[in-house]
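Bit of a strange request maybe. I'm writing a small parser for C-alpha cell strings and I need a real example to test against, not something I typed by hand. Could someone generate the C-alpha cells for this chain?
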Amino acid sequence: MKTFEIIASVIVIVSLVYVSFVLTLADWLAALRKGQAVTLLPERNGRKYPFWAQVGMVILGLAICAGMFYFLWIPLFSISTNALYLLDGIGLILYAAGCVFMLWARRMLGKMWGLSTSQQVKLRDDHRIIQAGPYALVRNPMYFGWWVAMFGLVLLYPVWMVFLMFLFSVVSFAGRARREDKALAERFGEAWMEYKKRTKFLIPYIY
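Reply from user aminoacidic:
Good idea to test on real output. This should exercise your parser:
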C-alpha cells in the first residue's frame, strides 16, 4: 500500500501545483498586469490597489491556508484498514477524472478564460460563448470538474481541512457561476438564452 500512497501523493501534488499556480495564478497575474483580470481587492473611490497589494493578498491567503492544513489535518472519522483502501482507490479515480474534465474544459475555453471573484466578473471585449466539448453539456464544466476532483480528494484524504475545502468550493463556485451566468446573459442576450435552454447549469444531465 505504501507504493499506492506514494503514487497518489505525487499525482495530487503535481496536479494541484499545475492547476493552482501554473494554470490559474500565472495566467491571472499576467492578465492583471494588462488590466484584463478581476482584482482581489476592490476599487476604493475609483482608485485601484497597486499590483503588489494584489500579490500580497495571494501570499497572505497561501500562508493562512498552510496554517489551516497544519492545524486541521484531523481525521473526519475512524475507519477500518480495508475500507480505507477502498476509499483511497475510489478517491484517486474520482480525483483524476475530475481534473481531466476540468482541464478539458479549460482547454476548450482558451483565451475566454478569466478568473472571477465573489464580487466581480470580467468579460473580454472580444468575448464569445464557447459551446463545444464539455460546454455542450453544462455551462460551468470547470466548476463541476473541480467539485468531482475535490470529492475524490476527500475520500483519498478524509481529514477536516480537505472536507472544508470541498464545502468552500461548492458554495463559492455556485455563487460565481450565477454571477457569470448573469454577466453573460447581459452581454449576449438571446444567444445566451438559446444556449442556456440546451445545457445544464452545473451538473451534466442533472442540474
